[in-house]
Amino acid sequence: MGIRSKLIAFAVGIAVLVAVVFDGYVVKTLGAELGQHTEADLAVRAALVTESVARARDLASEATALAATLSERAGARVTLIDPAGVVRGDSSVAPERLGELEPHAARDEVADARHHGVGRSERVSRTTQMRMLYAAQRLDRPDGPWIVRLAFEPVAIDRSLSAAHARVVQGTWLALALAVSAALVGARALSGRLVYLTGVAREMRGDLSRRARVQGRDEIAALGGALDDLAESLERSRRELGGEGERFGAVLESMREGVLVTDERGDISLVNPALSQLLGIRGDAVGRPPIEVLRSASLHELLEEVALARAAATREIEIAPAAPGAAGPPGRRILVVNAAPLALPAQSRGAAGVVAVFFDVTELRRIEGLQRNFIANASHELRTPVASIRASSETLLGGALDDPDAARDFTEVIERNAARLHRLVNDLLDLSRIEGRERPLSQGSLDLAAQAEAAVALLRGRAREKGTEVEVDVAPGTLVTADPRALDQILTNLVDNAIQHTPDGSRVVVRARGANGRVLLEIEDDGHGIPAAHQARVFERFYRVDQGRARASGGTGLGLSIAKHLVEAMRGDISVTTGAAGGALFRVTLPGATAGAPR
Question: Taking 70 as the threshold, does the pLDDT of residue 191 lie above it?
C-alpha cells in the first residue's frame, strides 16, 4: 500500500472514529437531557393534576371521569389509585375494564410516592405494553393516602434522538468527503516529494554525485538534506576506501611473501597471488577452511591457536603444493608462518579472524643443508690426506729420517697427499668462484674440435698408463659459444673422469653434432657405467658412486660439480645416462656459433 492510500485510509479512519464518538456522545447526552427535562415536566404536571384531584368531594365516585378529564388537560395518561392500591380511574382504560387491573401498590413509583410523597420510574407498561415514564404523587385524604400517577410515552424523545443521529450521520458523510479530498490533495503533494526522494536515492546507488536539493523547512526537506549529506559522506568514504583498497591491493600484489586471511568462522577470506603461486591455490579457496585447501595439520593448529588465544605466534611448517606441478623439493615447501589475530572490539567473544604471512625458506633450508653437507664432506675429504701427511711426518721425525729408503717412501706419501690437498683446495676455490659468479666468463666462438684435441692431448699420458684409448670424433669447424678456459676445464674433467673410472684397456670417445642452433657434446666410455639410482646425484659435490675406488684414483669429488656449474653458466645443459656399450654417457649441450662470430 502506497503512502497516498495510507493517508486516505488514515483520514477516513479518523473521520469515522470521530463520527462514532460524536454520535454516541450526542445521543447519550441529548437523551439524558431530554429524559431529565421530561421527568421534571411530568413531575410538574403531576403536581398540578394532584391539586385538581384534591378539590374533588367524592373522589372514589368521580375518579373515572376525573382521570379522563385531567388526562386531556395534562397531555398524559392519568391514573388514580386508592389507599388500597386499587385503580379507581385510568384515562387509558375503559371504566368497565378497571376491575381487570391488578393492584398497583407494588409499582415502584407508587411505593416511592406512598413512602416519600413522590415517585418516578421508567418501564414497559403491563397495561399498554409500551415504554412509559411515570411520575406519582401522594394525596392525603380523610380515607387514606391516594396516589395520583401520570404516565408519558417518550416518543418525542426518541424522535429527537433519531433526528440527531441522522444529522450526525449526514455530518459524518460530509466530513468523510472533506477528509478524503483533503487527504488526496495532501497525499499527492507529499507522495510526489517522497517519490522524488526515492528516485534520487535509487540513482545514488550507482552515482553518489546525485543530490536531492529539496527546498523548504519541513520534515521532507530535512530528509532530503540528510540524504544529500549521507551521499556526500559515502562518496568521500568511497574515495578514501578506494584509494586505500588500491594501495592495499598493490601491496598484496607486489609482496613476495604469501598472505592468507581467515574470518571469525575460520574460513579463508583472502589469499594473495604470491601464496596462490607458491602453493598452487585455486581461485575457489575463498570461503573454505584452510585445512581443506592446504591440507596441513600444523597450519590448522597454528591458526586455531592464534584465533582462540588472540595472540601472535610463529611456526615453521611443511606444506605440499595444492596443485600438481607446483615447485618445491621434492614436491613440498618449507614455510615460516607468522600469524596474528585481526583486531576486534574488546567486548566481543569467541574466535577472531587471523592474518598469516608465509615466508618460503625452502631454498634457504636447502642451502643450509648443502652447507652442512659440504662442511662435513670437505672435512672428511681433507681428513685423509692430512692424516697421511701427519702420520708420515711423525714417522720421519721419530727416526725414519736415518733410513734413506723409508724416508724417501714417507716423503713420497707426503708429496702425494699434499698434491691431493692442493687439487682439492683449488677445486673448492674454483667451485666457490663459479657459484658466487666471481669468475668472469668471456664467451666467444670456439672450434670444439680443436678444444677437444687440446684437452685430450693433456690426458693421453694418463690414458696410456691404463691402456685406455681416447678417441676424438668431432668434425672440424663445429663452433660453440663458450669461454675457452671454462670449456677446456669441462672437457678435461669429463675425459679425466672417464679415464679414472673405467677398467684398464677401456675406450673413451669424444664426439659432437649440431642441431637447431645448439651443439651436443658427448663423452662416452665402455666401463662399468653409473647405476640409474646414482645418475641424478653424480653432479653433487663430493658425491661418489664407489667411495673407496674414487679416493684411490686421487679424485677430489668436485670435478663433475664444477663441470655442471660451468655448463649452466654458459647457458647449457649437462646430464648423464647409460651408453650403448653399458658405460657412462655424459651429454653437454652448448649454444652453437656461426662462422665469422667474434672469438
Answer: no
pLDDT: is 292 or 420 the higher one? 292
Instruction: Say if residue 328's pLDDT is above 50.
Output: no
Tell me, yes or no, whether 514 and 451 share the same domain: yes
Compute, in degrees rounded to 10, the torsion defined by CA atoms 578, 582, 586, 587.
Answer: -70
Tell me, what's the pLDDT at 35? Answer: 67
435, 464, 486 - which closes a domain: 435
Distance CA 448, CA 519 (A): 9
Residue written as cell 671454462? 486
The Cα 579–Cα 582 span in angstroms is 5
d(CA 278, CA 287) in angstroms, rounded, equals 20
Quote the pTM value: 0.44
Look at the chain and report how many structural domains it folds into: 4
Alpha carbon distance 30, 559 (integer Å): 128
Reported as a single tens digit per residue, the pLDDT across 222-240 is: 777 787 777 778 777 777 7
**Which residues lie below 8 Å from residue 108, measured CB to CB, with a gap of 6+?**
119, 121, 123, 134
Task: Measure the N-to-C terminal CA separation of the chain; round to a whole number of Å.
Answer: 93
> What CA–CA distance (Å, rounded) separates 561 from 10?
96
Helix (H, G, I), strand (E, B) or coil at 462: helix
